[in-house]
Amino acid sequence: MNTETKSVYQTQPVAETGNPFAAIKTHAELIAALFSGVLILAGWLLDREGFQSASVAVYLAAFVIGGFAKAKEGIEDTIENKELNVEMLMIFAAIGSAIIGYWTEGAILIFIFALSGALETYTMNKSHKEISALMDLQPEEALLLSAGQEKKVHVSELVIGDHILVKPGERVPSDGKIVKGQTTIDEAAITGESMPVSKGTEDEIFAGTVNLNGSITVEITKLSSDTLFQKIIKLVQSAQSEKSPSQLFIERFEGRYVKVVLSVVALMMVLPHFLLGWSWTETFYRAMILLVVASPCALVASIMPATLAAISNGARHGILFKGGVHLENLSHLHAIAFDKTGTLTKGKPEVTDFVAVSDVSDVSAEEILAITASIERHSTHPLAQAIVNYATEQLNQPLSEPNYIEDVPGWGVKAVIADEEWTIGKANFTPSNQTEEFKLKAEALAQSGKTVVYVTRGEELAAIIALKDVVRQETKAAIELLKKQGIYTIMLTGDSKETAAAIAAESHVDEFIAECLPETKVDRLKALKEKYGNVAMVGDGINDAPALASANVGIAMGEGTDVALETADVVLMKNELPKIAEAISLSRRMNAIVKQNIIFSITVIMVLISSNFLQVLDLPYGVIGHEGSTILVILNSLRLLRS
Predict the structure, then answer these.
(1) Which of 23, 161, 168, 559 has its CA 20 to 30 A from that of 147?
(2) Are residues 148 and 69 in the same domain?
């Protein structure tokens, strides 16, 4: 295992993983390895021609050039951690081979070990290509609009409320909302969605996205350090530093294993000579081969490259994992609990039914809707705003201004328009006498999980309006995908049982828990964990944060609150629920590849050790088998980069 690579990719910030120094280091390692290979060939040719002293000098040069980086890493790591490592095993094996006169074999060991280290560094850099490229997407300057003038400023100088101009083809420098203009935005860098999105006045746009075709004026809504783009960077940095349980076990195992190998090698330097009659040269030679083939390089490299590749794949598709532990845990889930509002549903009520009474004198259905919207636009209640939005879409006539309006909190609103009194609100608040037909209609709407609003003129019922927090378009498909994966789904909601039952039926969840207060969500989740074992929680609000923290895996919607995003273990950047099934599938693929790597690496080690004891394995072939297995394990892990 390349110790330097391991430390770099577990602790180094994303901003640095794509810098030119990493590329220079990778190239330097590869050049040194290849040059040592050329020296080995030269040394072998000199030895054949009888120039033994010259060949030894050339081999020494190959040792130093090819092995310097690995020796330096191994010694520094041993001193720092006070633990022997696989690099030290390789150094001891190469030196031992030279001591007994096997200069060619020792040099080949150094060459292949250095080459595998260079290739490992390269593959690690490749696994982070998509993530490190994010840093190149953030503009450093913005065009600030102030007192009618345009001024270029650094993005760090922007404050909330500033207006900036973003021209066609430019990247958005900071999060904000459009206050002037229309355009199409390429949000692939943030959401992973390849299709551009049309944006107009009041629409949100994010730093790092590309303004394709329209000049827009944007009002800054977040500081450059708090943008969604920066959250992605911080989440990825967190993912790099947090290791999975399997990785932690392998790292603990490595130190103990190296000590056992060195102890066995020490015994093998002596015992076969007396017990099996081997010569001292053969005994020492076999001990050196054991040093090589018993080294756990492939085993140590079985997990981290796979984890990094999977995290990179997820980030490219809008799924951010905060660490390998959460990615690994996803494959062990048995159930997932969903918050309703803003997660399974859009989180905003919409008008689903507008039923006007046909025999209301002198007033058409369109006029009733227009009057209702004229009154409701003076209210800040979410239901009122939904009614106004619906009327705006349905009507082509301007809204009128009430002569008098009175808001009754918790019940509704009264108003006077054209000397007529109108009342909008709950059934008990409106004074009308309903017909049996409309009573049945209202009851049917309420039983389907909808909120019914009554509109009356004087004491005469004019219309009923049904509103509902509409289930997301992709919710049903997402739940069905999870069911196919064997995941049990539960909805948590504070709604009544009737409303919860309607939403549960529409979204196809297996179970629902109604009348669930925010403070009781954690208790409900703990009960689910006792029943189903590993349980995930999906939410978007501040009240979901405790439950997200209590779950085995917390999953937050990308458009959720900052608290939810910080608490969750996994973030769905584009609020796409089907991504949960995709994340679970990715986790299962990663764990399967890790198991393949571990089984393969252990099998190779056992075969090579057995062949060595049977005296049928020479040092060059041991080196090729050992280092080749390490490279194959890393390449197998890189399959996770594919979609």
Answers:
(1) 168
(2) no
Classify burial at 362, counting beta carbons within 10 Å of its beta carbon; exposed 0-12, middle 13-18, buried 19 or more.
exposed
Q: Please give the structure tokens belonging to residue 446.
A: 């309420």
Which residue among the candidates 339, 469, 495, 569 is catalytic per the annotation? Answer: 339
- 367 with 448, same domain: the answer is yes
Q: How far apart are the C-alpha atoms of 545 and 560, rounded to whole Å?
A: 11
What's this model's pTM, rounded to 2 decimal places?
A: 0.67
Q: Is 376 helix (H, G, I), strand (E, B) or coil?
A: helix
Which of 426, 450, 471 represents a domain boundary (last residue)?
471
Query: By residue range, what is the domain housing residue 386?
Result: 346-471
* CATH number of the CATH domain containing 355: 3.40.1110.10
List the helix and strand counts (H, then E) for the chain.
25, 22
Q: How far apart are CA 454 and CA 460, in angstroms?
A: 11
Is 339 catalytic? The answer is: yes
Nearest 5°: the CA angle 621, 622, 626 is 115
- The number of CA neighbours under 13 Å toward the Cβ of 318 is 22
Helix, strand, coil: what percent of the chain each, to 5?
55, 20, 25
Are 239 and 216 in contact by the 8 Å Cβ rule? The answer is: no
Judge if 187 and 67 occupy the same domain: no
In the block, residue with structure tokens 């507008």 = 354
Token pair belonging to 551: 């779950």
For the chain (643 residues), the mean pLDDT of every run of 10, in chain order, is: 36 38 61 86 87 88 84 80 74 77 79 73 56 59 86 89 91 89 76 64 85 88 74 55 60 74 87 86 84 80 83 84 84 92 82 81 83 86 85 82 80 86 82 73 82 86 87 90 95 81 90 79 88 91 77 84 74 86 94 93 92 84 81 86 74
What are the C-alpha distances in Å from 382 to residues 145, 163, 446? 34, 29, 18
Domain limit, last residue, from 225, 256, 285? 225
Q: 144 pairs with which residues across the strands?
A: 151, 164
Number of compact structural domains in the chain: 3
First to last CA, the chain: 27
